[in-house]
Amino acid sequence: MQAGNFSETLANVVRELSDSKSYQGLFHRHSDDSPLPSSNTIHTLVEELRVLLFPGYFGNSAVNSRTITYHIGVHTEKAYNLLKSQILAGLCFYDTDEDSGCTDCQQKEAAKIAVEFLASLPDLRRILATDVEAMYNGDPAAHNYGEVISCYPAIRAITNYRIAHQLLTLGVPLIPRIITEQAHSETGIDIHPGAQIGHSFAIDHGTGVVIGETCVIGNNVKLYQGVTLGARSFPLDAEGKPIKGIPRHPILEDNVIIYSNATILGRITIGKGATVGGNIWVTEDVRPGARITQNRAKEIDNFKNYAI
User: Fold this and answer.
1) Structure pTM?
2) d(CA 230, CA 212)
3) Residue 140 phi/psi, 5° resolution?
4) Residue 308 has pLDDT above 60, yes or no
């Protein structure tokens, strides 16, 4: 291609990509004074929070009982600054007024939410401890809690989920979804931050697990790899678009076990203590204590739990 033709081609590319019709719905109008969410910063933030939640396993491995207060203090300050900046970016993200920038009110709100979130970390650690215990007790291959914390992808995904869910509860937009999608990319476990999950939650193996936005999961629930807790259908509005935010995913009551590659669809309830075997589609309520097997896909009384 001759130099003249090359320049003309590039000029045409610029014109076409700058045409408003070509980027409709794909263009974020950025204000000069508004920070953009940063995937790298959010990843660093989550790692700082992991240091606070699991001291000694992440970050400085030399921390001990004499230095832990200093260690926690340093990382809390780092987490606060990162968190405040990304919360502000989330709050400003949907403001498309190019001349407005982030307001003082948004900056104060970001600082307030960051403090409220950090104040929730002791409770967050307590519930994560039950998740670690559930993973350890439910897996004969686990030798100690440290192995579960350091190695198990489910703990990484559940930690990201619990951080993201708390931020979502505090009214932070966008950032929670980025946090859970980063865990999804790293582990193959897809948990929407809007899901409600009780304590002592375990995911064995984990790859391919999907937990939808409006799922409600009780305490002491265990899922195996490939489980989908999804929506059966998407109600549409008058314009034919999906209606947002309505309950459309399953409810799993306490002490439920779902084995590998089972698919649970719709706003149905899997009753307390029920067990669903592998490779089954379930689209209707399951009574408490029921045992559902693949070969009959119905309740039977002599179902025996099996291990994977």
Assistant:
1) 0.88
2) 6
3) -65, -15
4) no
